[in-house]
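Entry:
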Amino acid sequence: QVQFAESGGGLVQPGGSLKLSCTTSGTIGTPYATRWYRQVPGMSREFVAVITSVGITNYADSVAGRFTISRDNTKNTVFLRMNSLKHEETADYYCNGGTFAKYWGPGTQVTVSS
């Protein structure tokens, strides 16, 4: 019943920005943290950012200062604003959350290319 769904990916030039959304449907119950990960084909999934149910945030060192995670609990949505994107950040981006962080969305593709 619980589903996570990412949106907002696409093609962006180096140095450009994108805003991703993660919308949760179904009933989770007690609020949990939501995380963003990214994965390059053939590589392991990499942590990007996390936001708790009360708005505490943390970021991977590689994105700190450029990415911003936020949430709107009334809309069951978590956002990831990505600024100053780099070629090497081309990846599939996933949101993750719920109890034991066991729920994943299908991903949204971000391509950083000129």
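Residues 5 and 81 are 16 Å apart (CA to CA).
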